[in-house]
Design brief:
Blueprint (H helix, E strand, L loop, with lengths): L4 H15 L28 E10 L11 E6 L8 E7 L2 H10 L65 E5 L1 E7 L47 H14 L12 H23 L2 H13 L16 E2 L17 H12 L2
Parallel strand pairs: 1-3
Antiparallel strand pairs: 2-3, 4-5, 4-6
Length: 339
Amino acid sequence: MSSDAKSIVFRQRLWASVEAFPDVNLRWYPTRLNLGSNLEISNRLRGVYRNLVVSMLVRTAVRLNVSGITTEVPREPPDQARRTRVAFGEYAVHEFSHAVGLLSDEYIKDRGTRSTRVNPATPSVFTLSNLSYADRDDSVPWLHLAPTGRFRRTASGSHPSPLVGWLWVGGVKHTGVWHSEYRCLMNGLHNNFAFTQVASDDPTANAHGAYTEGNGADLRDRDRFCSWCQEVVVIRILEKTDQLTEPGDPSDPTKQGQTWYARWVNELREKYYTLLAVDQQILDAEAHYAALNPGRNGEPLWQSDLYIVPKASSNQPSGSVPMLADDELYLLLGYAAIP
């Protein structure tokens, strides 16, 4: 926490503005939360106001469009243990999504960097992220949206392969982290590749084949979340408004988060699919991606090396094998054979 005079004045004015509202909900995430470390969302959530999020539009005297940031701003002593998430930036929707949805950036900030973070051992609404730090099919949280998941999609011959729900490279770091779609509100510009991770073969490279830092592809969709980010935001809203709670839930906040996520998966997700017609949203996204040809020579997106199919885990399902069409069987065999 900065202690210079300007920072103190800023915090004083921020909290004076917040307290001017008569009905601000100041409950916070319990300090007893034990979410683990080295996760995208970890124990730093302790003490953060649960239902209070601030969004501030920012510009400078030099630039009207400034780079955004979301951070946690503490109160002044003696209440500095309490913090709120504040979104600063010109593009309010993207930054507000960081603040209220705990969503992370999906762009590649620096090429050649590798993430060392891990996925949570036990899924929880508190640790739920739009990024995955594992590439096995038993660890990626959004595979129900993939072509082999809840909404089956196949392709054969020269038809474009379905792309929603696979693992797309990047999430601030370049490798060791993935997101679920090519484009999203949480993506951006920075050092993204447009088609291939071979910079000199990608349209982001200069004509002579060299790559200029900061000259990446703009993969931000300003009109929509990807399907997984949308689902995460819905879960966050339900959590913050106690819609996931039922009598008999554990009293321990860590176990509550795990119980609520299981309830979402087993009971509520199907209702969400129906209410928001998620299957049609996915089909619309697939149609959009099928029409993209972002390669240097007009290659279609489905031929890109920016995405992979998850590695098959050793936990193969038991029971009889369902009867599949030839193209479904081909897709699933290829999916299981990836090393």
